[in-house]
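Data card: per-record layout.
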Amino acid sequence: MLIEVRDQEYLIGDLDADRSFDAGSYPDAFVDRISSQHRERALTSPVVLRAPRTLILSQTVDLPREAEADLNSAVRFGLTSWSPFEPSEVYFGACAKHSGRPDKIVAEIRYTLKTDVAGMIARCTDLGLAPDYIDLGTGAAWQISLDTEKLRMLRRTRRTDLGLVVAGLIGVLIVLGIVAYRQEQAIEVLRRQISMQLSERQSEAELLRKAESLEARNGLVRRQRAGQVDAFSFLSALATGLDDQAWFAELALTGQKGRATVVAPPDGDAIRRLEQTSFLADLRTLSVRPLSAVSRSYEIEFRLAREKP
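The structure for this 309-residue chain is written out next.
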């Protein structure tokens, strides 16, 4: 959900929709109706406050290339040298650009004074739409987190969802173990029956053929299971392939085929990482649905490769 401020007017609407509502120039009754329409969604989705361009300052500075690994920390350290403000007085973001030199980068810095947007944050909070991010421009680098309790709750919810997926896969492993144990028991029972039937002068050749056939089927099952991806290795590889900004909302495996819904930033980097993993093959994106300015829902399908992660 996006709240954009223009000349003291508060435009409220979806991040990727053309339709918006003017909450600054309409009567209080209309503001109340807008607030009630969006309040329920704001409880479970991030709210982004886009600051007016007139309040956004920008500059570029040269930094050592090593600073690119943790650009925000480098900017926070040097901000007092480049501006008259302390880091605690502003909301700021930074984006690295290539300088043409192997030892340098050019960092674009944008910031706005906290005192300038404090009234806007209070206005949105009064509408029941307390912001979770301050937006200083297009792109994830300019989405400044306010570290609200709601964002912390959403992160905890993501971890809980992953825990449920792990528990489900553990259950599948237990079932497979029970099936394998029962197969071994069936072979042992058949062997005993062969011994009993041989003692009754029945055809030894026929009984041996039955045992060999069952043994061959059991060996095929063992080989197939050995070629499948281990569930714990699968989860570990997924955790390595995705960062904290991406997670699996849904995950379903049927044999060697899988289908999943991934919530990730709109740059598509998370999907490219999954495509590069050795244990996923034929990965295909079925649909992309915008959730907010900082996230998209990617529905994908894939096949588990023979190579284990």
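Known properties of this structure: Confidence is low (pLDDT under 50) at residues 14-23. Residues 231-304 form a domain with the Gyrase A; domain 2 fold (CATH 3.30.1360).

See the next section for split statistics.
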